[in-house]
Specification:
- The chain is mainly beta and 202 residues long.
- The protein contains 1 helix and 16 strands.
- Strands 1, 2, 4, 5, 6, 7, 12 and 15 form an 8-stranded mixed sheet that branches.
- The chain starts with 9 loop residues before the first strand and ends with a strand.
Length: 202
């Protein structure tokens, strides 16, 4: 009798990383090698199913915020197993998206409003290092916010591989700013070791 293949749980680490605070001219358009970039108009655009391993609001002054039953904790008290490099912050990030009037919509607006950022000109980058179980499958969701028609460009690296080249704070090259839109990068990956490494920088 054959042994059925192991089915690994789908866990969803969520990180409201805001945007990387660097501004440079793109030499080429956005290239996505792994994952997807989407725009959302509220909590329904996020995947909040399955076991949520990490739900982190990258803010220095927000309380715990609940979105569709998932509690986002501020990165000032990182969850066990998580280590972040977030050299700078803006709280609040001028304006915030407008998704609606429900508690979940209002809380997601707050999560998008504060940001952590890095100065690429001085070699800074944003990093998230998350304890995971080798062989398990995880879904990463990074929430990005821009408050004007700016194209701040950077790259996203997951587990040492370039996932997105020339990601922009508006999602992709050519996308435009809209007040009721947030940006989400998503990637599903199977852990090969006990730490999932996500880096945003040049």
């Amino acid at each position: 009798m054959k042994t059925p293949p192991t089915t690994h749980r789908l866990a969803v680490p969520l990180a409201s990383l805001g945007l990387l605070g660097l501004l440079r001219h793109a030499e080429a358009g956005t290239v996505v090698d792994f994952g997807t970039i989407t725009s959302i108009n509220g909590p329904a655009g996020l995947d909040l199913t399955g076991e949520i391993v990490y739900a982190v609001n990258f803010s220095q002054n927000d309380p715990d915020l609940v979105v569709e039953g998932v509690t986002f904790t501020p990165d000032t008290t990182p969850p066990e197993g998580a280590f972040f490099v977030t050299p700078n912050n803006v709280a609040p990030w001028q304006i915030k998206p407008e998704f609606g009037d429900s508690e979940s919509e209002n809380n997601l607006e707050e999560i998008y409003q504060d940001i952590r950022w890095a100065n690429a000109g001085t070699g800074q980058q944003l990093e998230a290092h998350l304890a995971v179980t080798p062989g398990e499958t995880y879904k990463i969701q990074l929430l990005i916010c821009e408050n004007l028609q700016n194209y701040r460009h950077w790259d996203i690296e997951v587990e040492g591989a370039l996932s997105v080249d020339e990601f922009t704070s508006l999602g992709r090259t050519g996308w435009t700013f809209k007040r009721n839109v947030g940006i989400v990068f998503q990637q599903q990956i199977t852990a090969t070791d006990d730490t999932l490494d996500i880096i945003m920088g040049n």
